[in-house]
Amino acid sequence: MTLAEILASLFPAGHDVRVAGGLITGTGPLADGPVHVLGVADRTALGVDEALRMAGAVIDIARSPSGAPILVLIDSDSQRMSKRDELLGLSEYLAHLAKSLLLADRAGHRTIGLLYGHTAAGAFIATALATGTLVALPGADPVVMDLPSMSRVTKLSIEVLTEKAKATPVFAPGLDNLAQTGAILATWDPAKALDAQLAALLATPVGDDVRDLLGAERKGRTKSAEIAKRVVELARAGG
């Protein structure tokens, strides 16, 4: 689905969502009230300027008393690979954006990520993966790290990584593999109205983060839940 088609299905009564400089901002109405819409469009790379603008918008929402949810739409490139951005401390800006989303969520503004295009690496982690709940549309193409980049970091050959990706979803790119790790709660049906699917998701109570449990249940990330549980037990035992 294109961004225009997604917005039309999410907000059939109209909206004021706009795209400027590759960033999405605006609001749209649901039956129970307005939804803040933020995000990245057109496979825009996320650099220090974009991260700062998005984080500022999130913090402004977090300060408001409305409690309106934030929907983060994502079709991005990776983080911007430029000398300027790296010298300015891009990783800190991306971390600031991710923490802003966590802050908004804790301030009562439920955060929902919706993957509808490509996304990768730092841009993916600082936006979609920093939301409280992540869903996707068919055709979304998330990549935590592509195999050539992973090969350069790990010094393992592409052939070795390709074989590992066949058996271990955490090594593999793509929507199905990411869903298997538990990172994505559900893939929405584009043939059905997206406003109803968003409303149904918002109607579910906010509970504990169960992504590690989903990863174990779907056999894509079998150890995370067990290790996290053990860490909590040891921390509590240590007082």
Provide a descriptive summary of the structure in words:
This protein has 239 residues and is of the alpha/beta class. It is 45% helix and 22% strand. It contains eleven helices and nine strands. The protein has a seven-stranded mixed β-sheet. Helix 2 (48-63) links the parallel strand 3 (33-46) and strand 4 (70-79). Helix 2 (48-63) packs parallel to helix 4. The longest helix is centred in the middle third of the chain and has 17 residues, at 90-106. The mean pLDDT is 93.
Please write out the topology:
Blueprint: H1 3-10, E1 18-20, E2 23-30, E3 33-46, H2 48-63, E4 70-79, H3 83-87, H4 90-106, E5 111-115, E6 118-120, H5 121-126, E7 133-136, E8 141-143, H6 147-154, H7 158-167, H8 175-180, E9 186-187, H9 194-203, H10 211-217, H11 224-237
Parallel strand pairs: 3-4, 4-5, 5-7, 6-8, 7-9
Antiparallel strand pairs: 1-2, 2-3
In DSSP terms (H or I, runs of 4 or more residues), the helix count works out at: 11
Average per-residue pLDDT, rounded, comes to 93
Number of strands: 9
Give the helix proportion (percent range).
Answer: 40-55%
Protein structure class: alpha/beta
Could you write a compact summary of the structure shown?
The chain has helices at residues 3-10, 48-63, 83-87, 90-106, 121-126, 147-154, 158-167, 175-180, 194-203, 211-217, 224-237; strands at residues 18-20, 23-30, 33-46, 70-79, 111-115, 118-120, 133-136, 141-143, 186-187.
